[in-house]
Amino acid sequence: MNFRGTSQTMSAGIDLENVCCDFGTFRAVDNANVSIRPGEFFSFLGPSGCGKTTILRMVSGFIEPTQGVIRIGGEDVRGKRPNQRPTALIFQNLALFPLMPIWENITFGLEVRGVDKASRRKRAEELLQLVDLPGAAEKMVSQLSGGQKQRVAIARALAVEPQVMLLDEPLSALDLKLRQHMRAELRAIQQRTGVTFIYITHDQGEALAMSDRVGVMSQGRIQQIADPREIYNNPVNGFVASFVGENNIFKGEVQQAADGMASFSTPHGTFRARLGDLGGRDGKLYVRPEHTVISVAAEAENSVPVTITDVSFEGNFITVHATGDSGIHLTAEIRNDGSATMPDRGTRAYMAFDPARAAILPDANVRG
Amino acid sequence: MQDLLRRYGPGLTLIMGLMVAFWLLMLVIIPNMTLFEQSFRPYLPVREVGGPNDTYSLDNYLKVFDGTIERSFLGFTFQIPVHVLTFWLTIWYSMVVTVICFFMAYPLAYYMAKIVNPRSLPTLILLLFIPLWVSEVLRAFAWWIILAFRGPLNWLLLNLGLIEDPIRWTNMGYTGVVIGLIYTYVLFMLFPIYNAIQSLDTNQIEAAEDLGAPWWKIHWRIVLPHSKPGIAAGSVMVFMLSAGSLLVPSILGSTTSQWFTQTINQWFNDALDWNTASAYAFLLLLLCTLFVSLAMWVFRVKLSDIAK
Amino acid sequence: MHRFRQNLAHLYMVLFLVFLLAPLVVMSGAAFNDSKLPSIVPWRGFTTTWFSQMVQDQRMMLAFVNTLWVAVAVAVISVVVGTASAILINSISGKVRTVLYGLMISTILIPGVVIGISTMILWTRMGNALGTEFFLFNPGLHLSVLGQVSYIAAMVMLLVLARLQSFDADLEEAALDLGASHTQVMRRILLPHLYPAVGAGAAVAFFQSIENFNVTQFTRGGADTLTVYVFSQVRSGITPTINALAFLLICVTLVLALVYEINRRRRARIQAEREAEARRAEEAMLL
């Protein structure tokens, strides 16, 4: 787990046990329980205001939880100030010091610990190598591009040899192309250093692409913790299903359930699908557009007669919009393998889906 | 407070708090309270201070009404206490100065904000700032030279053939004082108005032009309302500075122009009666504050708008 | 028509500048006129006697030195107090902030006469009450310093507060997170950001102090500052030595203003170059 010959850089796990955080009467985080493993790349994913940033600030020590315990490396960190915790935070706006040259920025954490100038200078060069920015030591922050600033921020956080890196949407200010480039880079740096990364984002693509595991949040509650595949393929509720991708949604009622499957009666027909953990609540049927197929003839089951209303060519896939005879709006995505044909508008057809690819799920897990 | 502690820790918070306390308590609040208290005490020889004669009274304030002179205005002749008259004339001519400063500053402020080439603006501002850096006493002195009986202004006017005989500028009531005050304080009107107009989106002016508004209507309906906080700030500054000025009236005043601050100065430095001086100073502070509050209420601006 | 109005505006600007600067030219010119009375008409020939007489004028030189001392003291105290106040005001909110801020601002509007008298009365009465002859409690220029600070600190406060608006509080948190103490955050992060405003504040305080008359007039005891001296000379008969002094002061001001302007342009150019470099780096990365 060592990197570039430095002595330690252990990574630590983080445990949140029944953590709550209130701001006045508003509960920003409600009973969060999660165990993040040492060396893991863990993302909190959710819309703005879902409480993910509050979790990050509680771990870094800028906010104290109202209830519950936070452990870093097994040690309870209640009452410890940010500078006493083995964490390093990367701010959304990066918060690079504009009046210091790059190398002083990077080694500021060492400077305040009384490390002498020559060692700091040397360390700055090593870290700049690590983040692939050699020769930038003497530059000022305003001379760097967005992506370069990103790397300096990472280097600055790594300089204090944290056991945990906390990243608060650091890529949100970048252009799309650069953002995709930086994803790979962040992941590479994480693997090179072996430090635990906790990553906050509202961009599902980012979370799924980089993380070992993802925690999806809504309204202060953690909805699901799982690896990206599981999150996307087997969301536990409608919020997770909708937040990490598109869906065709049917409202209706569960009729018969057996062996994890159930039949679901809707105004648009009765369908068979996997039955999620409804917990006694109502459910809806969710199926992804890429699992929805278009055919000229009715399939044996889960088939809806439709009229194609719009077809849009997106490059790597084709999106087909259709309206069912009973009025429901459905979408299907066809992969563009180079020979895919585009159906005409107004064509009569059937949209169908595999029961194993559809799920009956409850709405989000929120306080009622 | 919570935020302060979190950001700077208890030690620095305490130090900063002490500094603010020193400033506001020792340099502002307590001195003014002392002044207020002192103004009710009689002026006594040193050994009688604190003795049986040292009692509170309004005597110092009532001195304002001593010694009346005769004045006529619009055909009416009436008696008016000389200090009341001085006070009234101070307020009146401060208002005159304020109004003239506004009419002088507004066009230039608009010019700076919307007409001048932005590249030459810093140079223009630099030139405008030069007189500000030169001491007020020297500025008043410069006008003392210019307005002298055999001075450059009369020389110029004579040579241009505009006047037959030299004019005694500094012996025409408040003329010299008003000119001096305008020169000294017009920039305090200019910069607040400039700041206000600068924040006006030029598109609004262009939109109004596009809709066919004549230039005066654009100013009346768009630019002036937008620059109201700046105008209020500039007016308050110019008025307070003018009414409180001692230098300009002393240097450029005539035998017939008395400024209220000069009266205070006479009580304090000539008569050595600090108590009456306190009472007069307090009157000045009180009435100026009232006047400014009234003006701010009429124009619906807040104190915090002024400090920009 | 539009063109005509534009030219009218240019003309007005020129007239305004003439109005502002002509008195200074007249005053400077009088410094070189060989006439006992300070004036430029009638012109009696070029001379530099007034400069040599100025240097020999002991009282004026003493007043000049006094002025500098007072101005330096006022600048130092005002900068310290004003900066602390700005930081404090910036991180509190609610009613306390409104009251404190209003109080601070109002000091600018208090007439100098009132400040002068009240400062004088407070400190001399404190001296009497304590029965001490300690210099602090006697009239003198140190009281002028205190009186001037009472409103000049507010000017510094406003300048620093304006600069604080552009400060990103995340920088403080980032520094704390990296292990800095509160003092280190102040010294390394916050104060360096404020230095331009602190410098401007010091300059404003210095010049405000130099030109102060009202407060000084009521607190100075027997000591002279330049404004008080010039004032007494104007009343009691004047020679162009004062013009010589004014000319030198204007020259110093002009030089300082020029240095400031050149420095500002240089900084703007460096900043523009850096931003251009950042843009190039951005583009290079995307290729």
Notes on the structure:
The complex is a heterotrimer of chains A (368), B (308) and C (287). Chain A has 368 residues and is of the alpha+beta class. Chain A is built from nine helices and 21 strands. Chain A has two domains: 14-238, Rossmann fold; 247-361, Nucleic acid-binding proteins (OB fold (Dihydrolipoamide Acetyltransferase, E2P), Beta Barrel), CATH 2.40.50.140. Chain A has helices at residues 52-60, 102-106, 108-111, 117-130, 146-159, 176-193, 204-210, 228-233, 238-243; strands spanning 14-23, 26-36, 41-45, 67-72, 75-76, 87-90, 164-168, 196-201, 213-218, 221-226, 248-251, 253-258, 261-266, 269-275, 284-287, 292-295, 303-313, 317-324, 329-335, 348-353, 359-361. Chain A has a six-stranded mixed sheet with strand order 6-7-8-3-9-10, with helices on both faces. In chain A, α4 packs across α5 (146-159). Chain A is globular and about 75 Å long. Residues 1-8 of chain A have low confidence and may be disordered. Chain B is mainly alpha-helical. Chain B has two domains: 1-38; 68-306, MetI-like fold (Orthogonal Bundle), CATH 1.10.3720.10. Chain B has helices at 2-38, 59-62, 82-115, 121-133, 136-146, 152-159, 175-198, 202-210, 215-226, 228-244, 247-252, 260-270, 274-299, 303-306, and strands at 68-73, 76-81. Chain B has a two-stranded antiparallel sheet. The mean pLDDT of chain B is 86. By secondary structure, chain C is mainly α. Chain C has a domain at 54-239: MetI-like (MetI-like fold, Orthogonal Bundle), CATH 1.10.3720.10. Chain C has eleven helices and no strands. In chain C, α1 (2-30) crosses α11 (241-286), α4 crosses α6 and α7 (170-177) packs across α8. The longest helix of chain C is centred in the C-terminal third of the chain and has 46 residues, at 241-286. The mean pLDDT of chain C is 89.
